[in-house]
Design brief:
By secondary structure, the chain is an alpha+beta fold. It is built from 3 helices and 6 strands; from the N terminus they run ααββββββα. It has one domain: Aspartate Aminotransferase, domain 1 (Alpha-Beta Complex). A 6-stranded antiparallel beta sheet has the order 1-2-3-4-6-5. It is globular and about 40 Å long. InterPro entries: YdhG-like. This is YdhG-like domain-containing protein.
Amino acid sequence: MNLNGQTNAKVDEYISALKADTAETVRFLRQVILESDKEIGEQIKWNSPAFYFAGEMPAFDAKEYKRDVVVINLHRGNILLVFPTGARISDKSGIGGKNYPDGRKVVPISGLADARLKAGALQSAVKNLLAGVEKD
């Protein structure tokens, strides 16, 4: 859902084309992310469901990825949560994952059971990132 409570049709189409077990996990992760904050929007970006801050922001360089929150990336059958600016996430979120020198954080999700276990930490990580967004 976005600011007006609607889901993005392109994200719906993307998920419906996945294998049933993968689709169920991605659908669950999507719900957890969207329920984290009313100002989360969704789109297809980098050929994956991507979630971003949909509120007003001052102008910035697009290469800084300030608006981007998390991407659900499917790579060789694995589900990865990619936080473009995830290195900023407080360790207190409990999300785990690996930080990269370019500022990304990548968190593998092994399936629906793992997604359910990480749901609280995922919401905490999203809220943590949104707290650092410069809003207009």
